[in-house]
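User: Can you predict the 3D structure for this chain?
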Amino acid sequence: MAATYPMPAGAHRAEATVSRSRFLATLAPAPDEDAARAVVDAVRAEFPDATHHCWAYVVGPPGSTARVGMSDAGEPHGTAGRPMLDVLLHGDVGDVVAVVTRWYGGVNLGKGGLVRAYAGAVQRALATLPRAERVTWREATVTLAYTDVDALQRLVETLGGEIRSERYGADVRYDLAVPERAAERFAAELADATAGRARVSWRVAGGAA
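Assistant: Here is the predicted structure, written as structure tokens:
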């Protein structure tokens, strides 16, 4: 998995009318399949009067097909979910779910028209989507002397890390996280700053920033 990649900064919508049918595209972060399906359920609950709620999601880096899903939600097979998924896979955004809500306007669009309408709805939303960077974090427990605390805190701040907890005893123990890309630098500079006294135990976790 890529260490960093673009993802939605939050929920975002774009709307258009095609031959009297209203199409509302909702894009949202989807760090896992459960989150993606929760967005679909929330949109359905928000617009119970709609004719269709078609959806697609990509969990993972942009273009990854390892964890994807889609549904035509009652539209003719292949006219909604697959075109939406294709747009997402080529949209340079990961961890994303798209729900396109349609209110039928009385004019049949035909299969080709539906494909264009659903794909176009997602394309419009992607074009104006605010993006954040997904970061793979390296979590660590660091044990060090009281005299080295200031050096550790300055280093974590410099590298954009987070101190999540601290415990005091004969020495000081910190649970913290730094971006994956900065992990080697963190270890090297901490060793230099503490003359090798600090002990680092690494874990791996995912997150977004």
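The mean pLDDT is 94. The first helix runs from residue 33 to 46.
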